[in-house]
């Protein structure tokens, strides 16, 4: 009798223990849930690269200038640049984009302006309904008064 009880205790189980697999899957799920929101950017901006080429269709873009001191300028339809505050900028550009959704909106930031100033303008333009914003740059080897759109 002892032999039969002992044989019953030592019998191998042919079941798979799935608890470790469930633990691993839950950890992976948490990792993907945490990292997925970090993959999306709130402001879509195509930054110019060193060898970028000029945009082709440049019919009277709206140009928002951010000076080194943080002051804003607005040039519409190739006219003269006017100094504006952030609320006026948002209202004027928003109205202009609603009238013509295909218009190019470009931001020209001074080399010495803080990143916060340009970022604030980009966020305000997004709230004004501008879907795409381009950043202006100056090609290497040109004078500061000759600005090209990239």
Automatic annotation (TrEMBL):
<dbReference type="Pfam" id="PF02472">
    <property type="entry name" value="ExbD"/>
</dbReference>
<dbReference type="InterPro" id="IPR003400">
    <property type="entry name" value="ExbD"/>
</dbReference>
<dbReference type="GO" id="GO:0015031">
    <property type="term" value="P:protein transport"/>
</dbReference>
<keyword id="KW-0132">Cell division</keyword>
<comment type="function">
    <text>Part of the Tol-Pal system, which plays a role in outer membrane invagination during cell division and is important for maintaining outer membrane integrity.</text>
</comment>
<keyword id="KW-0812">Transmembrane</keyword>
<keyword id="KW-1003">Cell membrane</keyword>
<comment type="similarity">
    <text>Belongs to the ExbD/TolR family.</text>
</comment>
<keyword id="KW-0131">Cell cycle</keyword>
<dbReference type="GO" id="GO:0005886">
    <property type="term" value="C:plasma membrane"/>
</dbReference>
<dbReference type="GO" id="GO:0051301">
    <property type="term" value="P:cell division"/>
</dbReference>
<feature type="transmembrane region" description="Helical">
    <location>
        <begin position="21"/>
        <end position="39"/>
    </location>
</feature>
<keyword id="KW-0472">Membrane</keyword>
<keyword id="KW-1133">Transmembrane helix</keyword>
<dbReference type="InterPro" id="IPR014168">
    <property type="entry name" value="Tol-Pal_TolR"/>
</dbReference>
<comment type="subunit">
    <text>The Tol-Pal system is composed of five core proteins: the inner membrane proteins TolA, TolQ and TolR, the periplasmic protein TolB and the outer membrane protein Pal. They form a network linking the inner and outer membranes and the peptidoglycan layer.</text>
</comment>
<keyword id="KW-0997">Cell inner membrane</keyword>
<protein>
    <recommendedName>
        <fullName>Tol-Pal system protein TolR</fullName>
    </recommendedName>
</protein>
<dbReference type="GO" id="GO:0022857">
    <property type="term" value="F:transmembrane transporter activity"/>
</dbReference>
């Amino acid at each position: 009798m002892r032999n039969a009880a002992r044989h019953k205790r030592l019998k191998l189980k042919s079941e798979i223990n799935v608890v470790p697999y469930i633990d691993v899957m839950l950890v992976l799920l948490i990792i993907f849930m945490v990292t997925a929101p970090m993959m999306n950017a709130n402001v879509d901006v195509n930054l110019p690269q060193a060898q970028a080429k000029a945009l082709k269709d440049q019919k009277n873009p709206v140009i928002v200038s951010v000076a080194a001191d943080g002051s804003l300028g607005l040039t519409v339809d190739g006219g003269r640049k006017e100094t504006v505050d952030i609320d006026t900028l948002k209202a004027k550009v928003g109205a202009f984009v609603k009238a013509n959704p295909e218009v190019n909106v470009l931001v020209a930031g001074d080399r010495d302006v803080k990143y916060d100033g340009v970022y604030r303008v980009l966020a305000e333009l997004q709230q004004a309904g501008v879907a795409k914003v381009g950043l202006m740059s100056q090609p290497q080897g040109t004078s500061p008064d000759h600005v090209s759109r990239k």
